[in-house]
# Entry
Amino acid sequence: MEFDRSAKWLMWHHGKSLLWLGGESRPIRTCKAVQAEVVLPGKLPDGLFEVEFADSKAPELHLLEVFVYADKRALDQIVRDLELVHADRRTIPEVTVMTLSSKGRYRIPNRATFSSNRGTTRIHAEWVARNLWQIPAVELLARGDVGLIPWVPLCRTRRTADWLLRECRNRIDTQAADEERDSLLATTLIYADLKFGNDPALNILGDRKVLAETPLVRQFIDQGKIEGKIEGKIEGKIQVIRDILESRFDAISPEMMARLASIKDVDALSRLGIAAAKCKTFDEFTREIDGN
# Structure
């Protein structure tokens, strides 16, 4: 979860940098991160921006999705967030999907098609897909943009961890605003840890205990406690629904479990728990979950 929160902080404070990293080459006049009022809590897209370009008269909506690892469930999240933004703003945003780590064989594609059960209705979506580990670190360093530095450790390079992290530390020390310096060091450390693990070179970025007391990381900890309680309730309710359905009908398919896992609303899961106990057939429960 610290990776998700680090990405969100960088989006809200260095959105222009991230749009460039996502492949946007046009000069940007302004970039405003759209806050949580767009959608329901727990269903907020990773990053939604209102962007004004130097050559455009009206702002454009850009949706940036960041995933630590590639996962097939990402397709559901991408399309869901796209639909949520469209429902709220009545426009289709430009979508960029960025994966941070090359772990695993699966790669998030740049398109997906979803069909109804009978195949009479289809939703097709396309987007820009970027894999951070394929982007040369030297390109980020050459930009001279301190907002890109936390991503540098995850990029492609032949340099040693020691050299790379010293360069990151130097850029942050000399280029970052005083109020952002510690937060940039903390986010860089989080991503460097993802790439280099227990390499002693990580100490170049600072004492972990000291960085743990920065406002950014303290915010992560406090938010994590709240999210952990909510997540625990969600997992518990999903398990109850599964137990009820399996006791009444049969083994639950992975597809149904994936659909349940995609629901992050505690109240909705409570209603589904009641439906699981009262429905006469499994198809009836399926229709109930279709309504969520």
